[in-house]
Design a protein that fits this description.
The chain folds into two domains: 236 residues, 2-Layer Sandwich (Antithrombin, Chain I, domain 2), CATH 3.30.497.10; 90 residues, Alpha-1-antitrypsin, domain 1 (Roll), CATH 2.30.39.10. 27% of the residues lie in helices and 37% in strands. Strands 3, 4, 5, 11, 12, 13 and 14 form a seven-stranded mixed β-sheet that branches. Helix 1 runs antiparallel to helix 7, helix 1 crosses helix 9 and helix 4 runs parallel beside helix 5. The longest helix is centred in the first third of the chain and has 16 residues. The N and C termini lie far apart (69 Å).
């Protein structure tokens, strides 16, 4: 989990530079989980770089899978509260693979056993494909993160997706009657915001020369850290975060009497494209393919490489609690390898045949013209 947390902060830092004036919401875990699963299907020469970037270098695939299974079990198990037993977090993994391929049985088994993943066969050229993926995303996030894709590239052969949905109430809710409108000083100028108030004893607080921090706890035992840099540079502070710094802050939290004012906020990003950031972090195949990278995904002799990573995320924080959702879509493109590597020469200086055709939305070939050229 330290590797996953460090990956979370490195990816957050990579995106923070683009968020000086804009809000940012990201689920690093929703990116990390499907990429970790793909370690099991990655060509050996790329596997070490992928593992290092994800923070799991030096750990065998079996140990990684077992650790992920344990983490998923612990994160999604029910919690007992005064209001009953429930879990605030839903995590779902899936892979949609082109109907022309047969998914490797070994990957199917481990994806199901360790990642709670389901595999589907799909026709990416069908008009229903986009609707099917978006419906899956919407159903998996209680309708908060639908419409994650608007189409597929003709060479798309598979997508690996993760959906995450979280909803929980504060252990001590804010009194809506105490919420007051006031000024928020944004880098782009002054704005009006509705500030929630928490005042009194036993607040989980931390302070040093750089930040003030409050830990807000949820009914099920998790929580949210609110970190306020004293120099106003939230982007710079997030860019410097590590798992060690978070552990240090957590260890330094104590019970204090005080007053917290925090605005209600709601952020809904528009499908962030993460290719450049992930490539900069060391993911080795977010680029033009150099051979069969995901050779362990399907049985067929086909070149597969990751071509696109996108995430749509939303978070809403108010007096009652927090609701958040994210869907990450990792697209894999593919092509059949050339059967002849030697250069060829084709001189059409004798009679030849021509066939002019079109393709339907289902990929079917329709011959429009055909003929023979005997005398051009």
């Amino acid at each position: 989990m330290q590797g996953a947390t460090d990956f979370a902060f490195r990816l957050s830092a990579a995106l923070a530079g683009d968020s000086v004036y804009d809000n940012l919401v990201l689920s690093p875990l929703s990116v990390w989980l499907p990429l970790v699963a793909l370690i099991n299907a990655t060509e050996m020469e790329y596997r070490e770089a992928l593992s290092e970037t994800l923070g799991v270098k030096g750990i065998s695939e079996e140990e990684i899978n077992q650790a992920v299974a344990r983490i998923l079990y612990e994160l999604t198990s029910s919690h007992d509260t005064v209001e009953g037993s429930y879990n605030p977090l839903k995590l779902i993994n899936a892979a949609f693979v082109s109907k022309e391929f047969t998914i490797r049985r070994s990957f199917t088994q481990l994806f199901s056993d360790y990642y709670n993943g389901t595999l589907y066969s799909i026709d990416f050229q069908s008009t229903q494909a986009v609707q099917e993926i978006n419906k899956w995303a919407s159903n998996s996030t209680e309708g908060l993160s639908g419409n994650v894709v608007d189409g597929f590239h003709p060479s798309t052969r598979a997508i690996i997706v993760n959906a995450m949905y979280f909803a929980d109430r504060w252990r001590g809710e804010f009194d809506v009657n105490d919420t007051k409108e006031d000024t928020f000083y944004s880098p782009s100028g002054e704005q009006s915001a509705n500030f929630m108030l928490r005042e009194g004893n036993n607040q989980s607080y931390y302070e040093d020369d750089i930040i003030q921090a409050v830990r807000l706890e949820f009914m099920t035992g998790g929580g949210m850290y609110i970190l306020l840099p004293k120099n106003g540079d939230a982007m710079g502070f997030l860019s410097s975060m590590t798992s060690e710094k978070l552990d240090y802050i957590a260890a330094g939290v104590g019970q204090r009497t005080g007053k917290l004012l925090i605005p209600r906020f709601s952020i809904n990003n528009v499908a962030l494209r993460l290719n450049d950031e992930l490539k900069a972090l060391g993911i080795p195949f977010i680029e033009e393919h150099q051979g069969s990278i995901l050779n362990g995904l399907v049985e067929e002799d086909v070149l597969l490489w990751i071509s696109d990573v996108r995430q749509k995320a939303v978070i809403e924080v108010d007096e009652n609690g927090t609701t958040a959702a994210a869907v990450t879509v990792i697209s894999a493109d593919g092509e059949y390898p050339s059967r002849h590597s030697d250069p060829f020469e084709m001189v059409c200086n004798t009679p030849f045949v021509f066939i002019l055709y079109e393709l339907t939305s289902r990929g079917e070939t329709v011959v429009l013209f055909s003929g023979i050229v005997n005398a051009p």
